[in-house]
Amino acid sequence: MPKRDSTHMTAQRERILQAALGCIGAYGVEGTSIAHIRKAAGLSAGTIYRYFASKEDLVVAALEHFSTYETAVPIPGNWAEYRAGLMKEKRPTGLSSAELDSAMLHLMAAALSADYLRAAIRPVIERNLAEQRQVVEALVKAGGIEIAGTPEETVRAVAAVGIGMSWLAALSGQSAEAAAEEAAGIIDRLVRL
């Protein structure tokens, strides 16, 4: 068997993670099988198990991989830049906005009843909130915005609006883009410029 270089191995792993996220968006966490992921990735089950010991390991790896933020992200100069950054994918998934929203909503819903997933998603949420709080604190300190509550309350409200609008769009048939635009309008009301 030929040896695989690290670039090939990294590309294979990324391909599996993207396929897993797409399947989670389509079938949910419980409904997704290794067979679904194998087919979507165009790989053998053996190849998938070479990288991941179980479906649970693969689901957690996909969650962590696609929620990893770049380090040392520059602080936006104003609220409009901050808001635009919220709507931008941090790591390309190859999924449409609606597919990505569906995958993330399925992951959050599954975390309510799956301990392994709850343990994995909690630090992702905490890290995201902490990073966003630093941005809001910097914007307040620079005089770019005024907020009614604390930076923590503001970022929790922003997260709640974004997640809530994603749920509403998924359940009502509204497009992900329309929901994002509506969420942006609501988020703008949280600050005074």
Could you characterize the architecture of this molecule?
- The chain has 2 domains: 1-59, Arc Repressor Mutant, subunit A (Orthogonal Bundle); 67-192, Tetracycline Repressor, domain 2 (Orthogonal Bundle).
- It is 72% helix and 2% strand.
- It is elongated.
- It has 193 residues and is an all-alpha fold.
- It has helices spanning 6-31, 34-41, 45-51, 55-66, 79-87, 97-111, 115-141, 151-172, 176-188; strands at residues 146-147, 191-192.
- It has a two-stranded antiparallel sheet.
- Helix 1 (6-31) packs across helix 4.
Task: Provide keyphrases for this structure.
Arc Repressor Mutant, subunit A; 193 residues; Tetracycline Repressor, domain 2; mainly alpha; elongated
Helix content estimate: over 70%
Q: Tally the helices.
A: 9
CATH architecture of the largest domain: Orthogonal Bundle
Low-pLDDT sequence parts: none
What's the CATH C level of the largest domain? Mainly Alpha
Q: Main β-sheet: number of strands, strand sense, barrel status?
A: 2 strands, antiparallel
Number of domains: 2
Number of DSSP strands? 2
Overall pLDDT: 88
In terms of DSSP E residues, the strand content is under 5%
* Coarse morphology: elongated
Strand order of the largest sheet: 1-2
Derived structural class: mainly alpha
